[in-house]
Amino acid sequence: MSKPTRLCIFARAPVLDEVKTRLARTLGAEAALAAHEELVGLALNQLANVAGMHSELWIAGATDHPTVLEWSRSWQLPVLAQQGDDLGARMSHAVQTCLAEPALALVVGTDCPGITADYVQQAATALRDHDLVLGPAEDGGYGLIGLRIPAPELFEDVLWGTDAVLQQTLDRAVRSGLSYTLLATVWDVDEAADWVRFLANR
Question: In the structure, what pLDDT confidence band is assigned to residue 1 with cuts at 50, 70 and 90?
């Protein structure tokens, strides 16, 4: 019997001056907050009800924030708290939680408009034949990671937020003997030019 797939949608509680800080340098804090909420809403529209998956909203920050509670109600998603001191620790915790069930683990952010239901279904399919699946991002990171076996080493001492993230992850996968595959490259919204690109394509 095949394992179920848990889709962990990572998002940050929408607090002024704590989200989209790079975007805020150009747009201002309030516009960056609005952009963050729009991106999360799009991600939830695309990923909350993917056929054959159990979608969950994993929040960094206050899980009882009114907007977080509204996201949970509107898209009928359970809310879980991200746990860990950095992004790697938080993703590792989510993955280990899923694998302990046991279930296939997929973790996605909410900054990549190209991560659709079809995209995550491709990722789940890839995990039938591979230990690891990654959705590369144009900036050298990744917008999706999926695992069918534990691999905490993939999340330790990574230079998060740099263009080295994907390559570091692949190097560690090779050293650990993990089989892996890459999905199509996506792009994320971090800078003002990315937001302009998003607005032009929404």
Answer: low
CA–CA separation, 151 and 96 (whole Å): 9
Work out the mean pLDDT of the chain and round it to a whole number.
Answer: 97
Comparing CA positions, the residue from 16, 13, 120 lying closest to residue 64 is 13
Contact 60, 38 (CB under 8 A): no
Q: How far, in Å, CA of 77 to CA of 69, rounded?
A: 9
- Give the length of the chain: 202
Strands 104-108 and 180-182: unpaired
Retrieve residue 12's tokens: 């940050």
Distance separating alpha carbons of residues 79 and 178, to the nearest angstrom: 30
* 175 Cβ contact partners less than 8 Å away, ≥ 6 residues apart: none
Q: Which residue has the tokens 């279904």?
A: 121
Angle of the 66-75 helix axis to the 29-47 helix axis, nearest 10: 20
User: In the chain, helix, strand, coil percent, each to 5?
Assistant: 40, 20, 40
Q: Is 29 helix (H, G, I), strand (E, B) or coil?
A: helix
- 132 φ/ψ angles, rounded to the nearest 5 degrees: -140, 140
Please tell me the pTM assigned to this model: 0.97
Helix/strand/coil for 136: strand
CATH number of the domain enclosing 194? 3.90.550.10
Residue-range definition of the domain harbouring residue 28: 5-201
Phi, psi of 39 (to 5 degrees): -65, -40
CA 154 to chain centre: 15
